[in-house]
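check this:
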Amino acid sequence: MKLIVGLGNIGKKYEHTRHNMGFDALDAFAEMAGVDFDRENFKGTYGILKKEPFPEPVMLLKPSTLMNLSGESVRAAVDYFKIDIADILVIYDDMDIPEGKIRLRPDGSAGSHNGMKNIILHLGTDAFKRLRIGIGEPAFSGIDYVLGKPTKEGQEKIDEAIKEATHAIKDYLLNGWDYAMNHHNKK
């Protein structure tokens, strides 16, 4: 089984903020794939993708913890389903990437993202896949920026990035990680 985790904060107050790009991208993929987030466990809500053309079951997980405690949810799901670290993909926002761009990486550090730091802490490794959605450099305080909503122009760029992320996830599941990276990591 593969695990795809979208990072975000739960609650109306945080919907569609820059910090919830992981939730938004996972929601878009789930809608495209016909998966409902109809289960609650592992400190999160999740759905299971088990249908053609996807070759193996995929758990789509949105942690219900605070963003900075996302690792608790990921660790619980990994332990229960015995998911290999190599089969984990985490989707999240990244200020170091221009607004509206995406980047796929096979592993690496958390940078300044506290949700990723917590996942690395709980998994004991940074050797898992990630799909980062660019939210651009903040014009003001990082916390206020990531918890704020994009401008109209910024939202249009982010909508395109979410669409691209959805295709990247599908390509990863159907054609492999290297294929997805080669086709979606545009300069």
